[in-house]
Amino acid sequence: MRPTARVLDPQGPFLQTWNKIFVISCLVSVSVDSLFFYAPAIDGDNNCLYLDDKLDKTASILRSLTDIFYLLRMVFQFRTGFTASSSRVFGHGVLVDDTFEIAKRYLATYFLIDFLAVLPLPQVFVLVVRPHLKGSEVMTEKNILTLIVICQYVPRLIRIIPLYIQITRSAGTVMDTAWPGAAFNLLVYILASHVLGALWYILAIQREDTCWREACNDQDGCDLASLYCGSTVFGNNTFLQDACPTDGDADIDPIFGIYLPVLQNVSQSTGFLEKLFYCFWWGLQNLCSYGQNLKTSTYIWENLFAVFVSTSGLVLFALLIGNVQTYLQSASGHIEEMRVKRRDTQQWMAHRLIPEDIKERILRHDQYKWQETQGVDEEDLIINLPKDLRRDVKRHLCLSLLMRVPMFENLDDQLLDAMCDRLKPILYTEGSCVIREGAPVNEMLFIMRGTLESMTTDGGRMGFFNSNVLKSGDFCGEELLTWALDPTSGSNLPSSTRTVKTLSEVEGFSLRADHLRFVATQYRRLHSKQLRHTFRFYSQQWRTWGACFIQAAWHRYCRKKMEDSLYEKERRFQAAIVSDGSSSRSLGAALYAAHFACNMVRVLRRNAARKARLLERVPSRLLQKPAEPNFFAEEE
Predict the structure, then answer these.
(1) Which pTM does this prediction carry?
(2) Tens digit of pLDDT for each residue in 250-261?
């Protein structure tokens, strides 16, 4: 059942493309949310904390832009049909296009998760609530904002998983090709490193804030409000440098542990990019090393964070390596398969002591076939397609080439489709023997590219040799067509009357004996006078027979003309003798002239016989006329 104009097909190309965009936007939005963690900073001169207003507003704007994709996704969910579970017993199932049922299903499943993920709580706190807060209330807002962002990570990450599963079920992969797929998985790993670095930064600031609060509570006259820049309460906070020192050089800092590098290097920096890339490098380094270099203190939350880093690194690195390897193997799978096949071939040839010339031909054939097909078995791919789709693919691949064969250029579409469906692509390297004279013919070869030499000795007859060149548009194995069109022919295949060898790399299509017979018996258009004349004109057998027939007729004409010429000369000479005998010459002179005339006639006859023997070096008898295919006319 096709979806209506108002309902989107979940398997359609439009929604498949948008789902991929949604997945990428979800990953980007998670990384944008991490920018809020870089807003808190430390004023080293006054020993107080402050928030970077400019960074918070920039993060809020970027967060609003990514939320547009979430809202668009929710709109699409109200218009995306689904397959009824009761109709999945067989086939694709029935698509439900009732908008009420679609909305009811969405509200009962992922609507709440999408709603929580798209709530603009961080923007509200930054742009609406925060301008009205003063002093220590700003840091309270900081804690609330951090908690909101972390809590919204859960629905945003949860929403990515079913969306990713839906894409892989429909399209197989997120990316259609290998290298973009590997880049996508690497992007996920990089974004995870960015998020982990941002968490490391905000937890370091939070750890120092906790240390300052504890020290202030222990210090007489210290007001907690003085720990935050912009507060109306002023105090001397120099004691914090001694209570919470960040300049220690111990191997394991007992107070800050793994957070010490942040506090020493970038916590007091006003440059956002410095903090971003420093924390990103820390996250990437510890994800790759599974957190093995982390040296924690005894602080509980710090150790839990270290466990989270180690576990996340193990899981994400395993997924990255596995997915990237899968994508790269799909890209280089055929290359590796070709390499293994070539190695096995070389080992087999060495084990069987194959001669070097045959080895070279085998390797050249494999290399040529790889260059033409890139390791893809076209027949295996096409044979699994539905009949109509297979016919269209075969027609696209073979029809234009088949029409270059003059014998088939005037056939109707039905017959051409039947032949295209049964044609098999074939490759020959230079120097290959396609068929030998006297061997059974099991297929017709239609040449598309390359040249071949076709030769015959008329069954090994002494002094006879005929050779010509086949090129694009020619065919060989025409004996098979005679056999296929003869209803009285048995199962024994005809013998070849010619030897065919390749002069260069040859590409073509072959039509096997059983397929040719099927086409000949099913389609009566093959039995036509026009096809008979075309077949005779392009058949090498008929061409050779016709050339020999003309040659023999010419030799007979030349022999008859020579005999007539000798007879005329002899008649004239005898007439001359008679006229000389009637003259007044002596009888002896007449006898001498008659003897001389006889000798001359004998010499002329001997020369004529020698010329006749020279002419007989060509076939003294015609080649056997090729068997005539049963081209009986079906035309009215």
Answers:
(1) 0.58
(2) 777 788 888 888
